[in-house]
Sequence to fold (959 residues):
Amino acid sequence: MSGLRLTRDGWWVIGLTSGALLIALQTGNNLVYLVASALIAIVILAPVLATWNLRGLAVERTLPEEFYSGVDARGAFVLINPRRWGTAVAVHVEDVEHAASAILVAAVEVGNQAYAPTAWRFEERGAHTLCDVRLSSTFPFGLVERWRVVESPAALVIYAKPRAGLWQTETGDLGQETGRGQSIGSFGDFSGLREYQAGDAIRSIHWRTTARLAQPIVVVRTGEGARQLVVAVSDRHGKAWETEISRATGQVLRAFQKGCAVGLQLPDQRFEARDGGTWRRNLLEVLATLPARFS
Amino acid sequence: MMRGPGLPVYLCVLTGLAALALHGGAIVVATGTVALVAAIPSRWREAGAEIPWALVTIPVVLGLLGMSYAGLSPQHTVALLLLYLQAQSRVARTSVADDKVSLALSALMFILAATRTDSPWFAALLLTWTIAIPVALTRIDLERTVADRPRKRDALSRLSVAPMAAPVVALALVLFAALPRFSDARAVHTIGSVMTLPFVENSTVMGVSTDGAHPGDVAELLQDPTVAFRAWFSAEIQGPAYFRVVVFDEWDGEGWSRSESKGALISDEQMPADALHIEVAQANVEGGLLMSAGRPHALRIDGTSSLLFPDADGNVPVDVQGFTRYHLWTQAPLGPGAVTGTDLGPGNASWLEFPRLDSRVIELVGSITADSTTESEKVQAIARYLRSNYHYTRSPGASAGRPLDWFLFDGQKGHCEYFATSMVLMARAAGVPARYVSGYVGGESNASGYRVYRMSHAHAWAEVLIKDEGWVLVDATPAGPAAPVTELSVAEEGVDALTAWWYRTLLGYDVGTQTDAVFVAAHSVESWLPAAGTLEGSRPWAGLFGLLLIVGGLLVGGRRLLLRTAARLAGEIVKARPTGKVARAHSDARDALASLGWSVPASLPPVAAARWVHKRETGESATALIELAWLHYNVRYGGADDNELGPAARDLVVIIREIGPPPF
Fold:
């Protein structure tokens, strides 16, 4: 799907061009014909060049691994120019259904691609779909806006917004923490390195090794991964239910961040404590897709 | 500080102003002032933006209206208004919106200038403008797009969008040729009916007065190198071609004048098949007379179907304003001895009158023609006498009072006007009807196939009516003005050919030329068709249909090609060049690899790409590439000093260039 729209400048230039052409036709003056020809050439070439500017461009999304409702998820559009000639210039990229993601790509050279950092934000947890990406540009003359919609479907699960500061378990009903085994060395001593996993704190990244190996590496410290936690989700309704899910999500995240094995106790189902990135995602998805309970 | 799109906008503004300055006069001063204003540095313009312009604009507009009421021409009023608005938009510039206004005003200036000039300078200015305006529009659009994105602005400011002008110029030329014409080139407003000929008073045609001529008048004109007109001949002309501008018949003792036209002289002769076709271009005929040469059969102003004929006096009056181009069908020869017309009219007693002629002249004529019996012999005897006894000079000195007597008996030297006047009056005294003709002769031959006539080629001669022959051209002036055609140097010819192209082909392009071009193309198409059998003189309908199919096919089938070509012209060269010494070195290294046949995947980031190369070629060059990639990272993300690492990066590029072709 594509289209063309005259900008306000475009209307002005068409008015000016029409006037010049009328004078030329009326007087037969070849010098006015020359001026009118130059203006008409610009009017004709504006959509042609604008069409070329978007022609053949492919777009992909580099989505973050995790989306949380109400939180900006940083990612990028990747605009690919597979043409044999013709740099793509000043292309606006946006998700059709998420105008907030709009970003300007200054230039993509032939056979190259450009990363355009952007952010998506969803206000509700659950399954979502991103459908089409709209590419548009007024390049080169600003007289017409050429746009093209590129299909780029993506299925997302938006996790509930994690509520901060609820890790503490003073009341005992927010979670159950059990110790397991003996820690080696005192908590926090350097233990080793491993590949980065989603959810790892940025400050745990070992930058020098990351640069050397060209992939993110994090530091593992003693005491991590030695505890178990089962996060309980209370049976609530309405807004309180959503708050409960947000709290549980926050607890799950913090627990994994601390290296715990984490389980989940739902009102009608129980997941035993386990560790690992896949399990973490499973738990977050379970929380994200819990049906809403209206009061 | 607000940024401006820079040079392209200023170029548009300045070319528009210069075009307007072609008006001449006070407009030149005004445009110069505005050009200076447009060049004011931006930091001063910011102060100008504070001026309450409404308070200035209202008095200016009222002042202009007042001047218009007082007699300022509408064109000058509009020109001054445009100049004021342009000055305002430059001084009070606050955003790219003002640049757009400036561009629109420059377009209006060109349109206004086009109605007042036909100077080739206009072409140079318009070409510059046509190149600059797409670039300016693109810059303005990019500036608007990144108005609040400074990092993107830096990226886009490196783009070279100048080639964007190429498709615009090419398409503009095609459109100029293809846009429909409905009238003659350069607005021939009205062409009077040939049967109600206007009598033109007090005017000149290319420097030659059409209301009267006095011996001595032309002296100043003979020094003027301005081009009067150019003429293209359908066949090679031997010797000089005499172009008749105006024919005078009445002599009052001091000068020549024209009696009122006696109507068109429409010859009943068939136009001969070998009639010479002469195309005259750039002839300024505000005086209302068209030039003719030889024995004219018909004249046609370009773009019209009306044929014009000389009147009984030999003049071709038309109601035409300004520059025009026209065609003349005539019978050679065009020089002395040529019969320029037959005596089909009612006759004119003034052709034999010689009032206030000194008795000495009559005696002189009697002695000269004593041995002549026929009119022709008398004329030849007088002409011979004048040529051999009098000297040609462009500055004959004072001849107050009776110029003919002074020339014949005192000065005995003069220029063409003296010789022609003497010839006419002495022929009349001998009983031969004669008339005085002002026009042009000589010219400069150009290798491109035409002759250029300058004001200095103005000339005067006589026509005598010989029974059973008609009006015969007689030039009694000794060789000099009627000398053979001048040859020009190659450079002079080149410049003049360009100027001639401007006037004849471009300014003269009209419905006639357009139609001719279509029919020429149609005939060509028809000649390719099998069993082509167009009847002589008939329209090439099959060829036209074929031409239509070809054009339609090109438009439909060639759309993709056109699109690609336009994009290639416009986009190919729009290429970003990285800034920074290390980044440029890294870019050069990648280019060098590509030129050697290394097809490194474009999607790989620098270090990964270097490792990709290193995996295939483990030499020093590949290691240098990895080092260069890390330098690039350090500068871009690590805050390292680009200037400090630049030389090292260049050294690495030298090593990388020695890598050789890929081993696969």
